[in-house]
Amino acid sequence: TLLIAVIVALPLENSIRGQILSLVGVVLTAIIALSSTTFVANAMAGIMLQATKPFRPGDFILVNGVFGQITRISLVSTRIQTETRDFTNLPNLLLVTHPITVQHREGTIIQADVSLGYDIHHRDAEHHLLSAASKAGFSDPYVLVLELLDHAVNYRVAGFLNDVKNPLSARSALRRHMLDELHL
Q1: 168: buried, middle or exposed (CB in 10 Å: 19+, 13-18, 0-12)?
Q2: Which of 23, 49, 69, 91 would suit a FRET pair with 143, their CA atoms being 20 to 30 Å apart?
Q3: Whole-Å CA distances, 46 to 41, 63, 100, 105, 128
Q4: Helices (H), 11-162
Q5: Residue 106, Cβ neighbours under 10 Å: how many?
Q6: Confidence category of residue 1, pLDDT binned at 50, 70, 90
Q7: In angstroms, what is the C-alpha Rg of the chain?
Q8: What's residue 184's pLDDT?
Q9: What is the pTM of this model?
Q10: Average of pLDDT values for 165-170?
């Protein structure tokens, strides 16, 4: 507004003053248009998320390597609380352009991987890993042989977690029980 007041106060002909004001208007419009593209894109993504509702506050999501619980969804960003209890704001454009993993509220599979040497028979490894999953409170536990390496076998133990209030604690409990079982 100060620039416009200065231009109007200058002793110029009306046609030149009009051309200068038009030029200033075009420049300001270009600046606003170029600077608001990210805002507009995030707002459109926010509207899309509100319409499709792929997740809601309280859900745990994994997107672009970031895992956490959704605390708030706004027009331009979504806030999640990470494993360290910090808050991270994710632009809504990121959420519509990258794959999102949403954990089911009704229960989810929790898993952990471990590499064990060939000196441990696979039946013993499976027995101890299944026991660890049961002690961690998972239903329907199972063990997969993921890979046969030169020096070890990669196993994955998993089970169904009915109560999804804290999947991080459940995953940690599984790993603790794995340590206990494998060090007997």
Answers
A1: middle
A2: 69
A3: 9, 16, 15, 22, 46
A4: 14-35, 37-52, 92-97, 122-135
A5: 7
A6: low
A7: 28
A8: 64
A9: 0.64
A10: 84
